């Protein structure tokens, strides 16, 4: 089922999901869990995750929502293969489909406006900003090596139908660039929530919901603080990460 020499097998607290991921290379972070909690999708809607990695977002969304049709698109062959194994491992083949492909070529993979909802935890660091991870797999996942923000915006607009929603997690330092790009692509920003480690720290992540062809009007939600005193999770973080006793 998995290779203990090169992979880990873990049980996630959300949905008791079993999850394989490489020991070296791309491994998911808290970004994915926060985005999955932020996503809102109805049972009869179709949702796509662009850059699904080893399938963490489709699995979490399947556990957190009743949606029946989830597609994950991944560029890197090894991660796509792991994602398919994770889907089978959790018996979610009837709800999740993993495809290998380049988001720059989505017109060859899907009809325009195929999806009601799109989510993305994209590479949000520009090449030349920060240290490039020597593990190429992780570098592609974190830095704009295989795609740019412009490429993402084109794919997002193409894939969601009029009125469809886009949910994305991004860096606060590039938030103005993201919001301007969304607006120019007729993906109107509708909700924004910033994530902080503590009440005293600057935002480290931004969660954004946009809607295609919507009228202007942005709601700035209350900030999410992950920690209170010291390293103790806040009450909301405990709920999202399932660290709180039910």
Automatic annotation (TrEMBL):
<feature type="domain" description="Methyltransferase small">
    <location>
        <begin position="34"/>
        <end position="127"/>
    </location>
</feature>
<dbReference type="InterPro" id="IPR007848">
    <property type="entry name" value="Small_mtfrase_dom"/>
</dbReference>
<dbReference type="InterPro" id="IPR050210">
    <property type="entry name" value="tRNA_Adenine-N(6)_MTase"/>
</dbReference>
<protein>
    <submittedName>
        <fullName>SAM-dependent methyltransferase</fullName>
    </submittedName>
</protein>
<keyword id="KW-0489">Methyltransferase</keyword>
<dbReference type="GO" id="GO:0032259">
    <property type="term" value="P:methylation"/>
</dbReference>
<keyword id="KW-0808">Transferase</keyword>
<dbReference type="Pfam" id="PF05175">
    <property type="entry name" value="MTS"/>
</dbReference>
<dbReference type="InterPro" id="IPR029063">
    <property type="entry name" value="SAM-dependent_MTases_sf"/>
</dbReference>
<dbReference type="GO" id="GO:0008168">
    <property type="term" value="F:methyltransferase activity"/>
</dbReference>
């Amino acid at each position: 089922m998995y290779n203990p020499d090169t992979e880990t097998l873990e049980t996630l607290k959300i949905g008791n999901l079993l999850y394989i991921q490489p020991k070296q290379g791309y491994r998911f972070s808290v970004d994915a869990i926060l985005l999955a909690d932020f996503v809102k999708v109805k049972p009869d809607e179709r949702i796509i995750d662009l850059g699904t990695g080893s399938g963490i977002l489709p699995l979490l969304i399947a556990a957190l929502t009743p949606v029946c049709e989830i597609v994950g698109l991944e560029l890197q062959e090894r991660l796509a293969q792991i994602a398919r194994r994770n889907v089978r491992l959790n018996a979610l083949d009837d709800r999740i489909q993993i495809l290998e492909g380049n988001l720059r070529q989505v017109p060859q993979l899907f009809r325009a406006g195929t999806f009601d909802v799109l989510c993305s935890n994209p590479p949000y660091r520009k090449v030349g900003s920060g240290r490039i991870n020597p593990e190429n797999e992780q570098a592609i996942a974190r830095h704009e090596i295989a795609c740019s923000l412009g490429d993402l915006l084109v794919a997002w607009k193409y894939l969601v139908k009029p009125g469809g929603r886009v949910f994305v997690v991004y860096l606060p330092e590039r938030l103005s660039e993201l919001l301007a790009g969304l607006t120019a692509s007729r993906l109107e920003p509708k909700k924004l929530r910033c994530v902080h480690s503590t009440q005293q720290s600057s935002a480290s992540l931004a969660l954004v919901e946009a809607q295609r062809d919507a009228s202007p009007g942005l709601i700035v939600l209350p900030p999410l603080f992950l920690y209170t005193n010291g390293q103790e999770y806040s009450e909301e973080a405990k709920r999202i990460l399932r660290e709180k006793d039910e």
